[in-house]
Amino acid sequence: MSQEDFPQRDWRRWATMFGAAGLGAVFLVAGLTKMQDVAGFFHDIEGYRTFPPAVAAGLAYFVPALESVAGAAVLMVRWRRPGAWVLGFLLAAFLALLAVSWVRGLDVTCGCFGQRTAGANYPLLLGRDAVLLALAIFVFKGSTQPPKL
Amino acid sequence: MKLFQQVLVLGLLAAAVAGGLRAWQPFPLGGPGPGQLTLEQARVLEHTRVVVWVDARNAAAFASGHVPGAVNLNLAAWETGFAAMLKQWTPDRAVVVYCDDASCQASEEVAARLRGSAGLPEVYVLYGGWEAAQKEMENGRWKEAK
Lengths: 149, 146
What we know:
The complex is a heterodimer of chains A (about 150) and B (about 150). Chain A has helices spanning about 5-35, 40-45, 55-75, 80-105, 120-145.
């Protein structure tokens, strides 16, 4: 390892740390916001017309909890990798669900941060989730590097 | 600890949090019961049949907002409400009754009376009630069903 590699590795470590902080904060806020109105999030899930009511109700409880737990995990160095993995999995699922809903022509309420706005802006929602997915992958990969100094 | 085990731990922790959340904010998990329709099912029914909507809430709640074309019919003012409903109803039409939300009982009571003493053959209760219908209308999706 040459001395020239040190600044690059240092940059990557800081970028991973800031990326993890941003990613964790976004999902912690998203999860906690949805926890305030589980019934509202349940109706948002029903709007996707994909899950039977009993499954939608289970997801209305579990998804905000998983977002919050994984978001908090990403903020902790030791749990950053599994947290980023879970968030990446969630984001891939959200992207698939949004894409399918767009193809089906559904006018869904995202429910991502507990807001209730009519009319889904699919390109914006897909773009946002794609950026977050890229960030989750970056944080996951960055966290796998051994802490060499 | 391996990645898989750590992910499993996070999943179990999330399940525990979800359990706590369920205790904090309970709402019916079972979905529609016998004789009940989800809003989506009711809208599908509306595409193929003429549906008579019955609002089982009190007059003040009905006046503040209701499903388009709905008739206000509750046990407190049965005679006048029932007469108004019969103006819309014919034997080939289905009736969908709703009240405030998934936890209210007025719609079940009115539906039971319509099926029982009134003898109407096809009466459903809207699962989620006015709360679900109102969200659909606020989101601008109600028009699609018409």
